[in-house]
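Record Nicotinamidase-related amidase, 217 aa.
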Amino acid sequence: MTFRNGLNSLLRPEDSVLVLIDHQPYQLANVNSHDPQAVVNNSTALAKTAKAFNVPTILTSVIEARGGKLFKQITDVFPEQEVIDRTWVNTWQDQKVVDLVKATGRKQLIIAGLWTEVCVAMPAIQAAGEGWDVTVITDASGGSSTEAHEVAIQRMIAAGVNMMTWMALASEFQRDWARTEHVDELTDVLISHMGGSGIAYMWEQQLLKTPVENNAG
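=>
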């Protein structure tokens, strides 16, 4: 196993492509590894982060007619984009998805989806074996049980897949606060999806805009 370390191992938006897999009502109904509301929040934040940094994003569902449409919160981020509806359980065996990923010319493949042990693990392990640099966003994914999610993560790590959370990815993409090109978009994502940190940022902006009263006698 090759260790993932060094500066070049960090993710770069210009080299990344994101695939969001099966964030659908049927799958969400049996997510037990996470609070379902957190999964919706985190997957939406991940989609918005990708858009903020101009990272190509592929949206895919499995048998939409029975499992339901992708979360509206995600498709609203990419309103003009086709959702690829599959029959393959393993997304990486769906040639249309693979061809779209390959067409980007990028090799840092980022995946999130439901469930971790099935629709995330299968494509992540296959793609890693085919030479892709694969990262799974664990908190924008979820399993049918805590055990299923955690065992899937262990299995993917053993296959050479990198694990991150959406905020870690956003930070890695930003890398330097002196890079202001995407700061406004990223700040909007943090305000909407980062809970207390987003609220604290808005409070900070309020304080900066509020004159300090002179209470000196």
